[in-house]
Each structure stands twice: as structure tokens, then as C-alpha cells.
Amino acid sequence: MATIYDFNVQKTSGERFPLYHYEGKPVLIVNTASKCKFTSQFDDLQKLYEQYREQGVEVLGFPCNQFGEQEPGSHQEAAEFCQINYGVKFPVFAKIEVNGDHAHPLFDYLKKAAPFKGFEDHMNAKLLKLMITEKAPEWLLGDAIKWNFTKFLIDRQGNVVRRFEPTDSIEAIRVGIDSLLQ
């Protein structure tokens, strides 16, 4: 059975990077964008990284331009934006696609391992669903990533434990990480 350790990603430098380097560590994988309504989540992600890094938890950012063209710059510009504007110290990799024919195989695996289960029932979720309906209705179907800042929590064995939608609370993610560390 596959795990995230079976995949390689690309650093912003273009260098291939095998994810088996994170073997034995809980990992939070996030598709990001610098011009998104949810971009402020970089603050919370960095705080999670700082809180849990000494316990081995890694946060991995993957910029994506598929949702409203909210990550238009280069690989390097995306990573620099995170560092300059949000003090991000966790790894930010090269831009990728997360849906469609050119989706990165890692994200195809993540979507199959943790299918979409719906949005939390609050105003942000309703607004997001309206925005997706207007700008990218094709992403509403099936297990597609619905928008930027979808997150996948991975256990120490490289298995997907849970999918968090952009509107899920940072507290829910914290609870998920805590459960992996027990």
C-alpha cells in the first residue's frame, strides 16, 4: 500500500526531493496561495510548526495557481512571499497542480486516501462554496481539492489520517496533531 514516502516533489530550486526524508514524522501537507482569502492561514501554520517542530512535526507548503489564479508568480516568488510576509520557516516547495489531468501524483494519492466529506457548517464555508460555484464549479464534484489551504494530516508511517478543508479551524488541526503525538 502506498504512503507519502513513495512520492518525490520538487524544491523551488528545481531539485527533486523524496518525501521519505520525513519518514517517522507526523506531516501536515497544505496547498497554498499568496493572494487568497485564506492566505492569512500562513500565520497559524507557522505557529503550528513552531509549536510542534521539536516533537518532529513537519508542515509542507505546496503553492498552487489553480484556484482563481491566486499564485501567479514563480516558485521562488511564492516561497519568498511566505517568508517575507508571514515569517514562514517550514518548507515551501515548487508550484504544483492539485486537480485535473496535470495534478501532482502526491495530491492524487492524498485525495483518494482522504476524500472530501463536506464543509463545516458556518458562514465562511457557505461563502467558499458560493465562490467555488462561481469561479471553478468543476472542483465541486467528487474528491477534488476545493480551494487553496486544503490540508492533509499524515501519521508517522506516511499514511493520510485526515483531510481538513480551508474553512476548518486551526484548533481542529491542533487536536489532530495532538492525537498523533500521544
Automatic annotation (TrEMBL):
Keywords: Oxidoreductase, Peroxidase. Residues 1-182 form the Thioredoxin domain. GO terms for biological process: cellular response to oxidative stress. Transmembrane segments: none annotated. The keyword Membrane does not apply. The keyword Lyase does not apply. It comes from the Bacteria. InterPro entries: Glutathione_peroxidase, GPX_CS, Thioredoxin_domain. This is Glutathione peroxidase homolog BsaA.
